[in-house]
UniProtKB/TrEMBL annotation:
Protein name: ALOG domain-containing protein
Ranges of Low complexity composition bias in the record: 23-41
Residue numbers spanned by region Disordered: 23-53, 162-197
InterPro entries reported in the protein's UniProt record: ALOG, ALOG_dom
Main localization category: nucleus
Keywords: Developmental protein, DNA-binding, Nucleus, Transcription, Transcription regulation
Entry keyword Transcription regulation: yes
Family to which the UniProt record says this protein belongs: Belongs to the plant homeotic and developmental regulators ALOG protein family.
Metal-binding in keyword set: no
Pfam families: ALOG_dom (PF04852)
Residue ranges annotated for the ALOG domain, each copy included: 49-176
Subcellular location: Nucleus
Amino acid sequence: MDPITQEILSSTTGITSFTITTTGGGSTIASPTSAASSSSSAPPPQLSRYENQKRRDWNTFGQYLRNHRPPLSLSRCSGAHVLEFLRYLDQFGKTKVHIQLCPFFGQPKPPAPCPCPLRQAWGSLDALIGRLRAAYEENGGKPESNPFGARAVRLYLREVRDSQSKARGISYEKKKRKRPPPPPPAALSRPADGSYE
């Protein structure tokens, strides 16, 4: 097999065979036949929004590890690296977190702009860690060595929640679920023989 054909075969995914056609001028044309077109299989199921976000988050974290100096393998990743990643993400945050010296510290809706930094919101970080924790285990990681579940990460998230709550004047108390009202008491039903005991 010539090198060009080898390159085509190795770089193309989903190709199971080639259809070779000879033209009138004596030249041959090879066109790939994909597995999807040759079989009548259904398209792969659509992933949920959560699954798509989890995959994107996992890929982003993998990219972060590859760009880390020195590059890190997932097996050598610790809670400290996860914290470094979360702090790195702060630069892309969109949530205004007032510093203590700011006149708007503790006000949920400040009346004017201020130079306080933008950060990742606590809820976003908490959800991100939840997705990465699940993705780590889905990608072969052991739950007991999951860096996203490390004590340092949990403490950091709690610290971010508390500091943002004070700085923004917003309570992050857990919302209590509304329980459905209890069913009305069953009415006395008359036994089949018509008598009450």
